[in-house]
Structures are given as C-alpha cells and as structure tokens.
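Is this the right way to post structure tokens for a design question? Let me know if I should format differently. Anyway, here goes:
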C-alpha cells in the first residue's frame, strides 16, 4: 500500500502566512507538468510495485490546473504504477477556482475528494491573509461541489490570528458545520520565517500571535466538533466516523509515499528524499533524466522518534506493543519512564496498551513528543543488557 503526492507549484497570489514552494507565474506550467510526467517514469521503482491507494494533488494551488491536465497526470501515473480499483484521489482547491464550469468538468476526471481552502467566512480576514477568494465564494464553492454530486469533501479553517475574535471563530465553525461535510481541518496560524507575515510582525506592522488566544480557540473548536459528532482523530483534523483522510492518515501511519514535482517529499520506509525547491532547476534535471533530490537514510532511532511524533498526534496514539516488538522492550521501558510526568499532569493517558494525549496534552503535543524522543536505540539496548548481566 502506498500513496502518490503531486506538488503543483503555482498560485494566483501569495498568502501572507504561506512558506510552501510556489510561483505566481504560469509561464512554464506546460513544461513543468511535462517534467512531472517524466519524473513519474524516472521514479517508477521507488515504491517497489506497491499498490497506489491514494493520490493527492497539493501545492501551491492544484485547482489552477485544467481538468484535462489533471487527467493527463493520472493517466501517466497509471502507465508505471499499480493503482487500486478504488483509490482516494484528492484535489486541493481554492474557492475562486471552483466555478460551475470547472466543477462540472471535474466530474469527468478521477477526482473523488476535494480539500477546499476556506480559512474564514469573513472578507476582512481573507484580505488580511491575502487570500484570492471572497467569503461569498467560500460559501458558494462548497454548495457547488456538493450539488455536482461530490460527497467526500474537507474544508480548512485557520484560527489564532489577531482579527479573529471569539464570536467570529465560533461563527466560522458553525457556518462550516451547516454544510454537513464529512471532514474538517483547522490549523493554528504559525509565523514561518521569510513570509510576508513574519516581515510585518518584525517591522511592527502586525502584532505578534497570541498563544493564549490560539489555545482558547483550539479548545472551543474541540468542544464544538465533539458536539457535532466529529471525531478528533488528529491534532488538526476532525471527521465523522470512518471518514478520515486516507492519504494524510497514511502519512501518520508511516505508509510509503512518492512525491512528484519541485519540493515534493518521498518516504519508502527506510529513507526520505526531497526534490529541489526551484522550478527551473527541477525541470532542467528531469529533462536530463536526473532526479534532483536529496536523500536521508533513517536510523532505527530516527524511525522510532518519527513514529512517536506522528502517532501521538492521532486519536489512536502510540502503540506500546509495537514499540516493544519493533524497537525493543528496553526502549519501551524508557519511553514509559519519560511519559510518567505527563501522565501525572493528566496530559497523557495509557489506554488499551496505547499512549494517548488528553485534551490538555493536545495543547502542548509537540513539547510532549520531543520529551518522549529517544537519543539512541542501540545504546539503550546495550545499557539494559549490561544491567541484566550485572544487576545492582
């Protein structure tokens, strides 16, 4: 089982908070898509004939592509990879791209899931973020996709920014819930270096992000989604039962995936690689039959810490039996020792041989994960072996 991620590095304009790789010039779009088709061929052995269960068009703004261009990429993929009979195929989309004509045409492509970047239903917020769509387009886009017969839909909201009052945040959540879509993602605004937002804060044109505001809005979100019967299955993701985002869930479960396009990342279980974040360099390399990627082999310690980081973010938590069987029972014993202080403070619970975050723990998930990391799996095993031979 594996997934394919297409990074489409084009946007109409730059959101002030975004640090993903993209270009606002479409001048070389055709050439770049041709390079991505060639990369599919060059990378054909990366997943070792694993069946492709999910295909995800991310970016950037993949909805800039025409339906024909999307179909061509999927058809090219089918030449070199074994695709599941029922794959989840997601298109990230901006509301302003989803006019009636585009949505109707997308019904004739294999796309079966939409991820719509709503962010807010207030025009002043969208202008502050420098989003390309309006509040009216946000509402209309969801209705349009539903009216066209698409049921598997997720939408994004952002919280924790200065303009977002308690009343507006509750209104945003409430309005999105009226559409009865099966999946909702909500992200706390983070200030990434080298973004317009970071520069505005540094120069005093915008206030710093208020962590207390973000935390409170996160707790309101959790309460409202619980009342609406959504499961909080990952820190930033909520779904009606059994409507989890399969592609993203596979990331958190360490299922292999191949990233196609400039800046795209890949993982095959033992190593990670990432393509160059430059469109021209990417195309030049691919057209020369060379994959412009850096690679990192993952040690057993790396794999353990990645598992801790990703599993802890989900409602399923860290599988303690898996830790013991895969990384050794000395590692499991050490992990449980490090977890004890967070259990004492009711930030972690041990339930059915799984270590899970409480609601309080979710507020500091990254801090807890870092505290649970192992420095050296092999050293721990050696230590316990020596102690067993020479008990105190």
């Amino acid at each position: 089982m594996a997934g394919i991620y297409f990074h489409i590095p084009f946007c109409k304009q730059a959101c002030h908070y975004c640090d993903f790789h993209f270009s606002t010039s479409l001048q070389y779009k055709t050439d770049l898509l041709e390079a991505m088709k060639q990369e599919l061929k060059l990378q054909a052995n990366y997943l070792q004939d694993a069946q492709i269960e999910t295909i995800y068009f991310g970016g950037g703004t993949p909805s800039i592509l025409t339906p024909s261009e999307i179909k061509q990429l999927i058809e090219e993929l089918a030449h070199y990879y074994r695709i599941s009979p029922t794959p989840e195929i997601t298109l990230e989309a901006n509301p302003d791209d989803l006019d009636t004509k585009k949505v109707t045409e997308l019904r004739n492509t294999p796309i079966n899931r939409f991820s719509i970047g709503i962010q807010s239903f207030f025009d002043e917020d969208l202008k502050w973020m420098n989003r390309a769509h309006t509040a009216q387009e946000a509402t209309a886009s969801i209705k349009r996709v539903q009216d066209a017969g698409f049921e598997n839909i997720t939408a994004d909201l952002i919280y924790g920014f200065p303009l977002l009052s308690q009343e507006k945040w509750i209104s945003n959540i409430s309005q999105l819930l009226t559409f009865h879509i099966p999946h909702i993602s909500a992200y706390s605004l983070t200030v990434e270096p080298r973004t317009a937002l970071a520069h505005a804060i540094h120069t005093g044109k915008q206030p710093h992000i208020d962590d207390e505001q973000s935390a409170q809005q996160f707790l309101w979100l959790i309460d409202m989604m619980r009342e609406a019967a959504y499961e909080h299955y990952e820190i930033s993701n909520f779904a009606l039962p059994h409507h989890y985002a399969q592609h993203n869930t596979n990331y958190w479960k360490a299922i292999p995936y191949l990233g196609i396009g400039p800046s795209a990342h890949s993982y095959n279980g033992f190593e990670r690689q990432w393509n160059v974040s430059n469109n021209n360099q990417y195309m030049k390399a691919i057209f020369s039959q060379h994959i412009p990627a850096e690679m990192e082999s993952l040690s057993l310690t790396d794999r353990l810490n990645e598992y801790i980081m990703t599993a802890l973010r989900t409602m399923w938590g860290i599988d303690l039996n898996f830790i013991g069987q895969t990384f050794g029972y000395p590692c499991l014993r050490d992990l449980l020792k490090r977890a004890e202080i967070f259990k004492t403070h009711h930030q972690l619970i041990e339930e059915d041989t799984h270590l899970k975050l409480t609601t309080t723990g979710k507020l500091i998930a990254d801090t807890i994960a870092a505290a649970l990391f192992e420095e050296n799996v092999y050293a721990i095993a050696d230590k316990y072996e020596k102690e067993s031979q020479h008990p105190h």
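Format looks fine. Someone answered above. Worth noting: The chain has 16 helices and 15 strands. Residues 46 and 361 are 37 Å apart (CA to CA).
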